[in-house]
Amino acid sequence: MGAERDHLTSVWNIAAVIPVENNKNGGNGSNGSSNGSFSGELLPEENFLGICSRELLARGCELLKRTRKGDLHWKVVSVYINRMNQVMLKMKSRHVAGTITKKKKNVVLEVIKDMPAWPGRHLLEGGENRRYFGLKTVMRGVVEFECKSQREYDIWTQGASRLLSIAAEKNNRNRI
């Protein structure tokens, strides 16, 4: 219940700071453009849930990461778009009771969905509900993560895919 309450609180806090566009154009219902197309800062397909998902990905949460050697480590993982319109993966690991933090940043190229289950993880409690995905990066290759539920898996895979498409759209617009 505590995690759900924290999540709802953060969602409401996000909702409180999202600007709502009032009709500033004299009540004619247009958005100020002659052809009636969308001219706001946000893309038209971005809705409240999409914004909340991006906020969650940027803040990050703890995911279990599998190293190339097969070791498992808890990481605070976040994904965001940087100033150069690149999707970045940031992983923080805590050492010495949280006093020292190591941060590793990588450029994300692709989201790999439906990765095979890690050996032996199905034996744990709730193991049949766990889902696995990977983020293909420039420097580290595929970085594998475990999600505790289908919902968490969907948030991460769909959210990271959406960030990649937003970054690609921005890069294409800047080239023209």
From TrEMBL:
GO BP: any one term: leaf vascular tissue pattern formation
Residue ranges of every copy of the Pleckstrin-like plant domain listed in the record: 62-166
InterPro entries: PH_pln, VAB
UniProt-listed PANTHER family: AUXIN CANALIZATION PROTEIN (DUF828), EXPRESSED PROTEIN
Protein name (record): Pleckstrin-like plant domain-containing protein
Species, as recorded: Gossypium lobatum
